[in-house]
Structure formats: C-alpha cells, structure tokens
Known about the structure:
alpha+beta; 8-stranded mixed beta sheet; 31% strand
Amino acid sequence: MEPKKKIYLIALTVLVLLAIGVFFFSANQTEKTSENLEVFQEAPPIEVFSLASVISRVDLEQKLIFVQHPTEDKEIKVLVDDGAEIVKLEFPFDPKNPPSGGTTFSPKLTKIALGDLAPGSHALIESSENIYQKLELDHVKRIQILP
C-alpha cells in the first residue's frame, strides 16, 4: 500500500473510533443526568397571603367586613379581631394629580378604627395563613385602606 493511502486509512480509522467514543460517552452522560432528575407529578401548592379588593359592607357588631371577590360575583367575609392592624395609606399629594416624574415621596400610614371603614373603599388585606380559594378570612394581620 502506498504511504499516502496508509495515512488516510489511519486518519479515517481514528476519526471513526473517536466518533464512536464520543457517541457512547454522551449517551452514558445522558443516562446519568436522567437518573438525577426529579419529576413532579403534582404542581406545587398555590399560596396567597394578601387580597386587594373593594369593601362592600361593614358589620361593626360582629367585627366583620365583606369585600368583593376579585373574579366572581361573591363576597368574602373578613373577621377583624383585636390583633389586626387597620391603617390608611395617604399620599402627600392628590393621587389624581401626581407630581411630575423624578419626585420621591414617602406615603403616610395612619392608624384608624374598624368604624372608619366604609363601603367602596379599596383595601389590601394581609393574612398570616394561606387564603387561596377561601371565602372566610379569620387570621387577618393588617388591613390597609388605599387612596
């Protein structure tokens, strides 16, 4: 055999062996990676700890407020115990006429009583428990009345 053909034959053999080695090495790595993957059969649970809504009515005797459900034509009952903080958020300007861009400000939080809440007010209700899909909230930490 000619030396030139011999070199080509050796180079071709080396390339084929190298390709086979890479193929088996990558297949082995894929199997190892697949063994370490953890497949979830269920979606993780949904957790919700706050609700923004509009107050529809207030019951001072039973310490309850009712807010509109965000997506359905229902009310959500909120028990306001003595440990719940009720605050009103106030801006140092008229929200309908905000200052020009670049202005910084800090909103003022004023403590108010349950009797100060009124239907039609926008409220942010924070809970210490998951409130996802609940229609009665009884572990309320804070109610923030928005401007």
